[in-house]
TrEMBL record:
InterPro entries named among the record's database cross-references: Amidohydrolase (IPR017439), Bact_exopeptidase_dim_dom (IPR036264), ILR1-like_Hyd (IPR044757), Peptidase_M20 (IPR002933), Peptidase_M20_dimer (IPR011650)
Protein name, per record: Peptidase M20 dimerisation domain-containing protein
GO cellular component: endoplasmic reticulum
Alphabetical keyword list: Hydrolase, Manganese, Metal-binding, Signal
Length: 437
């Protein structure tokens, strides 16, 4: 059956369905109880481990996407695929406005897992070191819960299984495809390995920084290290460039406007006694406002070219803009923050939620959604007891799977609470139907 026929039947059976009015508190508590039941918990653990064993990089998540679609089929949830190459959009509810989205990213990282356990990555050089396997699992868990309560849903929940968060800008491809055209809000959850299970954290306003990458090639004239006067030394030029780049933050940025410029790559020369012809350096720059970000970008290029010229070298700078590597700042909507306060406080307990976590210099392509619709991004605890802390993107990362039910329940609670609040406020736009996603 085609997607459109499937969704037509979906609307026919649900658009006139009687709905029971639940309070958000009732729904949240009910959802967490369901998520903690052994049958649902074991199901989520099995899915997470299967995804973890078979990591796929950005825009290569074909098997992960296939697994997601198979589970949605079993649950009787209609979906659209492919979106942004490997992405999947699932739909639960009436098929009518309002539409609220829940997002999970699917991609892994190009790194070798060094954790020895039964479900270690089976793919050499690839690992789910950022918890995206847990993100997919929690959203599938939420889908299962929401499907069981479909008659109580006052609108439509859009499940966004997104590719390529790790540098590929998969969220931007989702937006550019028009997939969220009718959606009025979106929520995203990211696991944290240093936050206890059952706890969450976020804030209103800027949460994560805008992020970009740069690479520069500094060219001089190679020669023998014993007679440097006949050469033009690009290593010396690159060294001056690196020192000068640090002054952009220490001497040009407002001390109250957090910014970062880090050179993390330096390649040049293969011998102890040979001055090379060229050097390549590269790094990242970050800021919490678009204005500061653009200013950094402009000055990075000026400093590299100018300082290279001082040392008689030429330089070219590449910002990889065509790769969607520029991520905007992640800025949480104030109204959605109040909803998070109510839902998370009720679900987890007010003492288990940090509602004003300090902003972090990390970046997230969830920000592309927030540029076009109100969005809210939060952190969920998955700390493994009695284990030495390993950060995200560590080859030794471990996640506590006891946190999965909390993520599933939070997803489901945030979506249904939003729809309960807004189902009388958002009119159906004539000519805009779900099959346009």
């Amino acid at each position: 059956m085609s997607f459109f026929k499937c969704f037509s039947l979906f609307i026919f059976f649900h658009v006139f369905a009687a709905t029971s009015v639940f309070t958000s508190n009732q729904l949240s508590k009910n959802f967490l109880d369901i998520a903690k039941k052994p049958e649902l918990y074991d199901w989520m653990v099995k899915i997470r481990r299967k995804i973890h064993e078979n990591p796929e990089l950005g825009y290569e998540e074909f098997e992960t996407s296939k697994l997601i679609r198979a589970e949605l089929d079993k649950l009787g949830i209609p979906y659209k695929h492919p979106v942004a190459i490997t992405g999947v959009l699932g739909f639960i509810g009436t098929g009518n406005s309002p539409f609220v989205a829940l997002r999970a990213d699917m991609d892994a990282l190009p790194m070798q897992e060094l954790v020895e356990w039964e479900h270690k990555s089976k793919v050499p050089g690839k690992m789910h070191a950022c918890g995206h396997d847990a993100h997919v699992t929690m959203l599938l868990g939420a889908a299962k819960i929401l499907k069981q309560h479909e008659k109580e849903i006052q609108g439509t929940v859009v499940l966004v299984f997104q590719p390529a968060e790790e540098g590929g800008g998969g969220a931007k491809k989702i937006v550019d495809a028009g997939a969220l055209e009718n959606v009025s809000a979106i929520f995203g959850i990211h696991v944290l390995p240093n936050l206890p299970v059952g706890e969450a954290a976020s804030r209103s306003g800027p949460l994560l920084a805008a992020s970009g990458f740069f690479e520069a090639r500094i060219s001089g004239k190679g020669g023998h290290a014993a007679i440097p006067q006949f050469s033009i030394d690009p290593i010396l030029a690159a060294s001056n460039v690196i020192i000068s780049l640090q002054h952009l933050v220490s001497r040009e940025a407002d001390p109250l406007d957090s910014q970062v410029v880090t050179v993390a790559k330096f390649q040049g020369g293969d011998a102890f006694n040979v001055i090379p012809d060229s050097v390549t350096i590269g790094g990242t720059f970050r800021a919490f406002s678009k204005k500061s970000f653009e200013q950094l970008k402009q000055r990075i290029e000026q400093v590299i070219i100018g300082q290279a010229a001082v040392q008689r070298c030429n330089a070219s700078v590449n910002f990889f803009e065509k790769w969607s590597t520029f991520y905007p700042p992640t800025v949480n909507n104030g109204e959605l923050h109040e909803q998070f306060r109510d839902v998370a406080g009720n679900l987890l307990g007010m003492d288990k939620v940090n509602f004003d976590v300090p902003p972090l210099m990390g970046a997230e392509d969830f920000s592309f959604y927030q540029e076009v619709i109100p969005g809210y991004f939060l952190f969920l605890g998955m700390e493994t007891a009695n284990e030495e802390f390993q950060s995200l993107h560590s080859p030794y990362l471990k996640l506590n799977e006891d946190g999965l039910p909390y993520g599933a329940a939070l997803h489901a609670s945030l979506a249904t609470t939003y729809l309960l609040k807004h189902h009388h406020q958002v009119p159906v736009v004539e000519g805009k139907h779900h099959d346009e996603f």
